[in-house]
Write a structure and sequence with these properties.
By secondary structure, this protein is α/β, with parallel strands linked by helices. It contains seven helices and ten strands. Helix content is 43%, strand content 20%.
Length: 202
């Protein structure tokens, strides 16, 4: 079901073809030279493109950096071709879900500003990463440990408390702008859920 696939050897080749090809999903191996710069440049110049990153080994710092740059998924080797196809299918499903729902809230990941009605709400880095991660998640819901990874909270012993403080401060900030009261809810024994759709923009 994925017939239109292009294999490229370099980042330069990708951008040379970008004027003629409407990319949908990009899968990049971090072993490629300049891969982090590519992810950043790709997301900044082609915000409609979804990026899946492949890594030789698991690294929390590397994973956080990829998500911070705007990657959709981070897969660690070894994996099978079926795993990659499943990842692509999941990204396409998320993309279709966000496109089909009319969002009345927008989040600019580059400026860390949330647009709600006529209000501009400035977010901290961790607040922006929190909303971004939940907005992309399946059912807009993530476990606490997943959010701690996204927010680069390395102290897992006190991580739940720190995460709770970030969520509490964000809720307080949003209430000042008459934001929906239960937009971010705690899921007991699990984590947090974003209850409203948010459109992500550059």
């Amino acid at each position: 079901c994925y017939d239109d696939v292009t294999f490229l050897d370099s980042v330069d080749e990708f951008f040379e073809l970008s004027s003629n090809i409407a990319w949908d999903i990009i899968v990049i191996d971090l072993r490629c030279p300049g891969s982090f710069c590519f992810v950043s440049r790709c997301i900044n110049t082609l915000p409609q493109v979804n990026v899946i990153v492949l890594s030789q080994r698991y690294s929390l710092q590397e994973k956080f950096k990829c998500y911070e740059l705007g990657a959709e998924m981070y897969l660690v080797k070894p994996f099978s071709p079926v795993d990659i196809l499943n990842a692509i299918a999941l990204v396409k499903e998320r993309d279709a879900l966000h496109s089909s729902k009319k969002s009345f809230v927008k989040l600019s990941t580059s400026s860390r500003i949330m647009y709600f009605n006529d209000s501009l709400i400035r977010l901290s880095i961790k607040e922006c990463l929190l909303v971004y991660a939940l907005a992309l998640a399946d059912q807009r819901k993530l476990e606490s440990w997943q959010l701690m990874e996204r927010l680069n909270i390395l102290d897992f012993d006190n991580g739940h408390k720190y995460l709770g403080i970030i969520v509490s401060r964000l809720r307080t900030k949003l209430r000042k702008y008459n934001f929906p009261e239960h937009a971010i809810t705690a899921v007991r024994g699990y984590g947090y859920q974003l209850t409203i759709p948010i459109q992500l923009v550059l």
